[in-house]
Amino acid sequence: MMRIDVISAVPDSLISPLNTSILKRAQERKKVEILVHNLRDYAYDKHKQIDDKPFGGGAGMLLKPEPFFECIERLLNERKYDHIIFPTPGGKFYDQKMANNFSLKENLLIIAGHYKGIDDRVREKFATDEISIGRYVLTGGEIAAWIIIDSVVRLIPGVLNDSESALNDSLMDGDIIEAPYYTRPAEYKGLKMPEVLLSGHEKKIKDWKEEQSKILTEKWKKINNLE
Ligand code: SAM
Question: Is this structure's pTM higher than 0.85?
Answer without folding.
Answer: yes
